Amino acid sequence: MIDFIGDLVNFYLIPGLVLGSIYALGAIGLTMTFGILRFANFAHGETMTLGAYFAWTLVQLTGWHPIAVLPIAMGLTVLVVLGIDRGFYKPFRASPTIMLVIASFGMMLMVRSVVQFIWGVQMKAMVPGIQMPVVLFDWLRISPKHMMIIASVLVLMFAVHYLLTYTKIGKAMRAMSDSPELARLTGINTEAVIRATWIIGAALAAAAGVLLAVDTHVETMMGFKLLLPVFAATILGGIGRPYGAVAGGLVIGMAEELSSYPWIGTEPLLNPGYKAGVAFAIMVAMLIWRPSGLFRGKVY
Amino acid sequence: MDQTYGIFLYVISLLTMGGIYAILALGLNIQWGFTGLFNAGIAGFYAIGAYVSAILTTAPTARHLGGYEMPYPVAFAAAMIVAGILAWGVGRICLRLRSDYLAIATIGIAEIFRLILKNETWATNGPRGVSMVPKPFATLPEPWNHLAFLAMVLVTVAAIYLALETARKSPWGRVMTAIRENEPAARAAGKNVARFRMEGFVFGCMLMALAGAYTSHYLKFIGPNATDPLTATFLVWVMLVVGGSANNKGAILGAFLMWTVWSATEILTSRLPDDLSIRTAYVRIFLIGLVLQIVLQKFPRGILPEQRLASSAKAAENTGRPADRPST
Fold it and tell me: Does A42 contact B40 at a Cβ distance shorter than 8 Å?
């Protein structure tokens, strides 16, 4: 019995929790840009890739731990994203938002091709070597990197929570997400809010990319692989709802890992090759029955 | 003489692939240009068409589902029907929501198709793909077999063009434009918006499947990674936007133009030393992306702008691009 629970927790629940919290970080940024700028940002996955590559380069240069260089990688990613907004998204502020979707779709391929050009397409390891897991109570095995990832995610989430709840810009962001017209009437500087949204979204996306790279490795397609689950988490949580994005990310991450557990018999319930399809199936189900998501977000 | 003949064959292959991309661009034009639907999963419907047609025509083999040895027209029709049914399913879920959702769902569905094609080895031979796909007119002598295939592609493009032009000028086409420009007004005029949208989406996807079927017979091979799916989808978008969305001539022009640029730059970069040639491949994608961004910002109407039939030519001048639904 202990073996059974141990397997379930060690090999499915904990990886699910780690993956889910990484999805959650990505989804917070995506849901905020969707809620405030009102478009589905296809380049969000590439923002995560960029963060991971910045961190990898910094680790190579300084020899520090990835978590130590995380703030610098987040800062660099924010600068790039602000530049992209200035050059490629800002001209469309007054246009139909679908123009932004096309622009971001093009940006997705442009950013990726730049990453492939600079860093090449070979996989890279963020932390060399294999870490031994820590064993607790004789059966609970958790690796130090997983503990570190979950701790980093918690710190970042509390920071976002504080920012949205207690600071002026955070309140302005929530106001603009709820009603852009009313926000403008009350004198909120919309450009400042948009800038803040990009800063927070890009910083969290970079962090998600770095943490995923710590868990697995750095590669050029990692952002695109994250994009679908993160979109699913955003829709599941409700668009424009940061707390919904967190819940959505955790649900998607857990569901993906648990889908390959041998629930019936000894074979995995779902061929692990289809893991990426789980997020999509959940998203389609939400679009059919409850497009507003769990947290009653917006439906455009 | 040999060199001239080589160039002649190259031009034929350029025109053939350009024609196949023109079918894709015309399909996207129905969806985006006329109906205002954002399809980010073109490669998915393209792949479905390619696989269906390839599996239906190949000789029996143990490697994948096959051995039906159907005639080409049946295989082409089947490819379009299968893609149409799948598109109908996607449309049922997403068309009632704003175009962003359709974009997310179509990119997702293309990814799911790719997973299925990769994992269901019994039907598709997995990552190794379906090879030995028969090629129409293969029994004709050299260069006539290539020319006959090219003729088949070009006749298809011409037929689709004529059909779409007729449709565009018909009441059906005018309702499509009305929905794209002002959905509440079209609804108030008693038009069944959902049905028109669905028709546009399904027809577009069927054309994409036909283009896929042609490709698998032309290359005699189709695999899940035969083309980078995102690059293929993206190229078709660039073709339509550069050529001029909502203009069928523009879609065809954009397809031939961008395919020539894409293919010619590939020849240039493949002559560079190995290391450099791999890297410059990414520069090509970057530059094509930049072209898209510049056209979107500076010349949103493309090379051949949309031609409006009614007196609202002035309105087209002002917006110049398909409008989305109001974002409230």
Answer: yes
Tell me if chain B has a CB within 8 Å of the CB of A224: yes
State phi, psi for A166 to the nearest 5 degrees: -110, -15
Q: Which residues of A touch B230 (CB under 8 A)?
A: 108-109, 224
The ranges assigned to domains in chain A are 2-127+136-289
Name the token pair of A177: 């997400």
For residues B155 and B238, is the Cβ–Cβ distance under 8 A? no
Sequence-ordered list of residues with C-beta below 8 angstroms from that of A37, at least 6 positions apart, any chain: A89, A97, A100, A194, A197
Instruction: Report the helix count and the strand count for chain A, using DSSP H and E.
Output: 12, 2
Task: Report helix, strand or coil for B130.
Answer: strand
From the centroid of its chain, how far is CA B280?
A: 25
- The answer for A 124-163 residues in CB contact with B (under 8 A) is none
Please check whether residue B113 is in contact with residue B236, taking contact to mean a CB–CB distance below 8 angstroms: no
**DSSP code of residue B220:** S
Contact A47, A25 (CB under 8 A): no
Mean per-residue pLDDT over chain A, rounded:
85
Q: CA-to-CA distance for B322 and B176, rounded, in angstroms?
A: 11
Residue B210 is part of which domain span? 10-227
How many domains does one find in chain B?
A: 1
**Which of A164, A156, A254 lies closest to A202, judged by CA?**
A156
Question: What's the fold here for domain A2-127+136-289?
Answer: ABC transporter involved in vitamin B12 uptake, BtuC (1.10.3470)
Q: How far is B234 from chain A, CA to nearest CA, in Å?
A: 7
CB contact under 8 A, A107 and B324: no
Q: Identify from B95, B233, B297 which residue to disrupt to test chain A contact, counting A C-beta atoms within 10 A and taking the largest count.
A: B297
Q: Is residue B44 part of a domain?
A: yes
Residues of A in contact with B113 (CB under 8 A): none
Task: Check B290 against A284: CB less than 8 A apart.
Answer: no
Using a CB-CB distance cutoff of 8 angstroms, which residues of chain B are in contact with residue A113? Answer: 282-283, 285-286, 289
| Alpha carbon distance B211, B22 (integer Å) | 9
Place of tokens 């910045």: A54
Instruction: Read off the pLDDT band of A129 (50, 70, 90).
Output: low
Residue A1 has pLDDT above 60, yes or no: no
Is B281 within the bounds of a domain? Answer: no
User: Over pLDDT 90: what percentage of chain B?
Assistant: 28
**Which of B38, B119, B241 has its CB closest to that of A271?**
B119
The answer to whether the CB atoms of B282 and A113 lie below 8 A apart is: yes
For the segment B250-276, the average pLDDT, to the nearest whole number, is: 84
**C-alpha separations of B141 from A291, B147, B219 in Å:** 58, 10, 18
| Residue (of B102, B57, B112, B110) closest to B79 by Cα position | B57
Which one-letter DSSP state was computed for residue B304? Answer: S
The whole-model pTM stands at: 0.86
Other C-beta atoms lying within 10 Å of the C-beta of residue B313 = 11
Residue A285 is encoded by which pair of tokens? 């189900």
Asked if the Cβ–Cβ distance from B293 to A280 is below 8 Å, we say: no
- DSSP string across A53-106: HHHHHHHHHH---HHHHHHHHHHHHHHHHHHHIIIIIGGGTTS-THHHHHHHHH
Quick check: is B95 in a domain?
yes
Q: Does any domain span residue B268? A: no
DSSP letter for A142, please: E
Query: Per-residue pLDDT for B86 more than 90?
Result: yes
